[in-house]
Amino acid sequence: MAEPQELVEMLGAARARMEAVVAAIDPAMPVYDPWKIKEVLDHIAGWDDAILASLAAHIAGEVPATPAERGIDH
């Protein structure tokens, strides 16, 4: 299994690749009707939020909360 620092570096590299792709596309581009690229990015951001909360819970020795606990529109 990868070390924590290696995982952080891998996540940073993946984010940089995604940011490069996002910079080159139209935010109104249809992806999956009715979703535009904006909704896809919102979804990815929501998962980022859930992952960060889960990691914080693990570090604190707690059980992670349900990712969509605040609802899908949060």
Question: Can you walk me through this structure?
Answer:
This protein has 74 residues and is mainly α. It is 58% helix and 7% strand. The protein has helices spanning 4-23, 37-59, and strands spanning 30-32, 35-36. The model has no long low-confidence stretch (mean pLDDT 81).
Total count of helical runs of at least 4 residues: 2
Class inferred from helices and paired strands: mainly alpha
The pLDDT mean sits at: 81
Tell me the distance between the termini.
33 Å
- Total number of strands: 2
Rg over CA atoms, rounded to whole Å, is 15 Å
Largest sheet: 2 strands, antiparallel
Unreliable runs: none
Order of helices and strands: HEEH
Within the largest sheet, what's the order of strands?
1-2
Sum up the overall morphology in one term: flat
Helix content: 55-70%
DSSP strand content: 5-15%
What are the salient characteristics of this protein?
two-stranded antiparallel sheet; mainly alpha; 74 residues; flat
